[in-house]
Amino acid sequence: MSGEIYMAAVGALAYEKRLQIISNNLANSNTVGYKQDQGQFKIFNLTDIPEGPIQNSDELDTTQADMFWNQFNVYTDHSAGSLKNTGNDLDLALVGKGFFCVQTPDGIHYTRKGDFTLNADGVLVTRTGWPVMGESGEISIDGQANPQRHKKFSVDEEGNISVDGNQIDSLRLVDFQPPYNLTKVGEALFKPAESGPAEIQAGDVRVSQGFLELSNVDAVKMMTEMIEVLRGYESYQKIIRSVDEVNSRAINEIGKMT
Fold first, then answer.
1. Three-state SS string across 140-191, please?
2. Is residue 14 part of a domain?
3. Is 119 exposed, middle or buried (0-12, 13-18, 19+ CB in 10 A)?
4. pLDDT tens-digit series, residues 132-190
5. Would you give the distance in Å from CA 94 to the centre of its chain?
6. Secondary structure (DSSP) of 224-249
7. Nearest Cα to 124, choosing from 157, 91, 94, 151?
8. How many structural domains comprise the chain?
9. Given 85, 117, 160, 215, which residue has the most CB atoms within 10 angstroms?
10. Can you tell me the distance from the alpha carbon of 79 to that of 172, in angstroms, rounded to the nearest whole number?
């Protein structure tokens, strides 16, 4: 592959990955507690080429090609989303840094998605049925599946849960040292990466009952970035086609001369 086509293909691939990330962010712009992803890659500079002779050829061998490869990384933006007042006592939002703990078949996972409900056994669970964890384990509301049967179901700013004025448990709220080395597992859940950081007790956080934290995706900004990425991708396509046409004409002219 010629050097010009290779470098244009690398750029086009990076833009394609950015487009995939933006599309996923837009698809989850209305998902409660969703945290947007961002793409990051290093722009190639001539100063990045190591000192020493480079093979004078229109073709790049494997060793040379590595010099021009852009390393693409994806990271999650954990900034807070805006809050929405729902008036539902089972909807909880975190203000500040921290996560709810959820018991799944794969162990404890973490989330900011607080649209909880009660299962048939009166246990506080996520919309997918995973129990929300308190300091004492699963949070059971007296085995009642309907919170309206209680005089009052309340959660204070510190996460203490009370039913009929009696405290029954406290939400297990945790945090991690930045940068968050967490992996998305779907449904706005996270788990620590392999050999990732250990959880710590959430400090600067409070709970808002009757509110939900919305996605932190700015849909207008994402649409603007999508237009920018599409134009950049088209530019790389034009470069590849132009170089290919030049090479084809050169080959044809050489053929006529011989």
1. ECCCCCCHHHCCCEEECCCCEEEECCEEEEEECEEECCCCCCEEEEECCEEE
2. no
3. middle
4. 999 999 999 865 445 555 557 899 999 999 988 889 999 999 999 888 889 999 999 99
5. 18
6. HHHHHHHHHHHHHHHHHHHHHHHHHH
7. 91
8. 1
9. 215
10. 21
